[in-house]
What we know:
- The chain contains 14 helices and 2 strands, in the order αββααααααααααααα.
- The chain is mainly alpha-helical.
Amino acid sequence: MSVTVPDTQPGLPGPAVASARRSRFVWKLSYREALTGWLFASPWIIGFVLFTAWPMLFSLYASFTRYNIVQDPQWIGLQNYQQIIDDPRFYKALENTFWMVLYKTPIVMSVALGIAMLLNMNLPGDRIFRTLIYFPSVLAGVASIYLWQWILSPNGLLNSGLDVIGINGPAWFTDPAWTKPGLIVMGMWFIGNNVLIYLASLKGIPETLYEAAEIDGANAWRKTWHITLPMISPAIFFQIVTSIIGTFQIFTTAYIISGTRSNIGGPRQSMLFYVLYLYNRAFGRVGPHGLQMGYASALAWILFAIILTITLFQLAMSKRWVYYETS
């Protein structure tokens, strides 16, 4: 005689009902978690839409208009871009900016890497030196610029020190040939962040790699070239991308050192960088070279295209020399 055992006990739901209830509970829980997440993220999303996405879209529209803030935008098509092509100051600003990208970026990065490698040697007093090197990065930017403007003045601290050893210092920011080198010297003051990133990357290199290289008879140069640089190549790549983008956006230093708006760009416009020229077109004096928001928006989108192109090129080239341990 066979006995049939029921699938469920009396008063309890069947498997199908329990599964449905469990699915509804999981769906409600995931929905509640998603809603909570969106609520916490909503301040950033609202701020991004209002203060980033919408201004970008409006500037794209304004780049095809004649707009001076006071009057409504007037659609003029590609006239702003055509005027930019014929604008000699556009090419001057582009030339000055590319000069800084080609010279400042590798110099600052090399000096920062050298300092980070020295700090990574765990010498006595290295914590004090780390603090001293990073400390200028937390100071107010404008105050530091005024400080260096005094240091690099014709009779400033640096030239006075050079006179002591018999060197006639340059005029720096009053000499067109020395304005950009002066900015590079000033840039050394703010390399604390770069040094910190390099140092953190150097600390992550396993010591076993150096020990194995020493067993194979590798000298310091070979260990640096075949171990140190490949292992910190992601940090170097990050520094290259961010440094180039930051150099393309040089503004505050050149604006303050240039002085008055009538002397925008300094002597012979040697410090007329791209963003400074863009600012002058957008917010400069009222007239043929000021309050041209449409023209400035076109300049901004050209800068965006230049930076995007260079960044995509770097991303494509990084596959050949950037090493990731997980790859």
